[in-house]
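During the reporting period the student researcher (J.K.) took over the structure-prediction task from the postdoctoral fellow and processed the backlog of single-chain submissions. One of the processed entries is reproduced below for the supervisory committee.
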Amino acid sequence: MKRSRRIAFELLGPAFIAVFLYLSLLFIVSRDLIVVKGFFMFLVFGYVLSAIPSVVFTVLMEFAFARGLEGRSWRAVALASGLGALSGVAIALTFARGFDNGRGSFTLFPVLGFITGAIVGLMIFVFSKKGPNQALQHNDPSCHAPCVRTCRASRGRG
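J.K. obtained the following structure tokens:
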């Protein structure tokens, strides 16, 4: 997955996935098609509500990728799940007036955020190729910094 596509998915994917999961749950519970008819309204509301958490999620994920985290690692999935849960907590705090769980929103949104983050992490995992942190494929020490370290470490190994 190219970096630009990954960033677009990290920004736009969580709200769509969370709204889809939330409406699916509502439809299963209520068995009413009015939930399906309100999909676009919920989607707009989801993007408005999750704009700041999505930006923070994207910035933190890209910071981790820049520091060497590979998209095809389970650590990336775990990080995305954890950040999703934290985003859910942030969204729940806007609804639940602190940690009051009167309407169940403080329980629902962190779980929904965790599942959404896990799905986003799994999508990145599935569609990512092996990153630039692979083993050295050549012996040109002028390539870039990670290759130089690997070249220097492997010189004495014959």
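The committee noted the following: The chain has a mean pLDDT of 78.
J.K. will present the remaining backlog at the next meeting.
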